[in-house]
Specification:
single chain; about 325 residues; alpha+beta; Immunoglobulin-like; 5 helices; 12 strands; about 25% strand; disordered N terminus
């Protein structure tokens, strides 16, 4: 049977798909095959399936659609390109962001301020009962010359009280103040000198009810006052008796009221210079006293410099 269109071999070239689908693959001829390739082709032709009437050989079924694998390949390629683009964009955006170091736990970062918690304040509501305040201690200063009761000056040390009395009340310029010499458990003495080699004035101090130290008076061996005595009530004119051994026998007399700077009375008495000599004199008030208590002072000056040299001071009551 002859194939339309010529010999078998050219027909094979025209219908490749039919031959590939319905025939046995062409194998190279064996060198021992006397017939060769033609025998193989003929054998193939005889082994073809029956042909469909009215249809040329190899055309009994529609050719396969080769576009489907192409579309699948194109779709896969597009998806791969899109995914690659998205991945590239993510990497670029991530690289554009600044790198932030992971903060160490417990350590504040540069953008995190350390905040110290405010202390807890507990408000205690006021009670209706007022706190108990100890009443001020009433001090009996009838025997105290210094400091003045009406002032705010107080001394917790007996030596400090004696020094202040010598400078601010009597009038020593730069006294040399000695140690406190204990008498009883609440009183004692402190020595005061105008200079290291000067005469001694002994200051009497006592601790009163408020626990502070007060000056009760002073005495020196070179001026002895017999009358009036400590605590006496005096009025104008005031008579003074005693003995003194001072420069030219002179002793200055001053009477002061508590808390008043100006003297209530002033004058002098005369003893002796070479030895203790008696004196007897009087002074008068220059005004009626405004205070009930005061002090009487007898002082002597240095023969060389005229500075205050020694003193005797007593506490007195004043009668106008």
């Amino acid at each position: 049977m002859a194939w339309p269109g010529g010999p078998l071999v050219p027909r094979l070239a025209c219908w490749p798909f039919e031959l590939v689908t319905n025939a046995v693959p062409i194998l190279p001829a064996s060198p021992f095959d006397p017939v060769g390739p033609r025998r193989t082709v003929a054998t193939m032709a005889t082994q073809q399936l029956p042909l469909t009437p009215g249809v040329e050989p190899g055309m009994d079924r529609p050719p396969p659609d080769n576009r489907r694998p192409l579309w699948i390949a194109l779709t896969v390629a597009v998806v791969a390109v899109v995914l690659a683009s998205i991945t590239l964009m993510v990497v670029v955006l991530r690289d554009d962001q600044p790198t932030q170091a992971t903060p160490t736990p417990g350590a504040p970062t540069s953008e995190q301020a350390t905040v110290t918690p405010a202390p807890t304040v507990t408000t205690v509501p006021p009670t209706s009962v007022a706190p108990t305040v100890a009443p001020p201690v009433e001090v009996n200063t009838t025997t105290a010359v210094w400091p003045a009761k009406g002032s705010t000056v107080r001394y917790t040390n007996p030596v400090s009280a004696a020094r202040s009395f010598a400078v601010h009340f009597v009038g020593f310029q730069s006294p040399v103040v000695g140690r406190f010499q204990q008498g009883d458990n609440r009183s004692g003495e402190v020595t005061v000198r105008p200079r290291a080699t000067g005469p001694v004035t002994t200051v009497f101090v006592r601790q009163l009810e408020d626990g502070n130290w007060w000056v009760l008076g002073a005495a020196t061996d070179q001026i002895r006052l017999d009358s009036p005595a400590t605590g006496d009530l005096i009025s104008s004119p005031v008579r003074l008796t005693g003995a003194a051994q001072t420069f030219e026998g002179h002793a200055t007399v001053t009477i002061r009221e508590d808390g008043v700077l100006a003297p209530l009375a002033s004058g002098y008495v005369t003893g002796r210079m070479d030895e203790m000599g008696p004196f007897d004199g009087q002074v008068s008030f220059v005004r009626p006293p405004s205070q009930r208590y005061g002090a009487l002072l007898l002082t002597a000056e240095s023969a060389e410099t005229g500075e205050l040299w020694q003193a005797t001071v007593i506490r007195v009551q004043l009668l106008g």
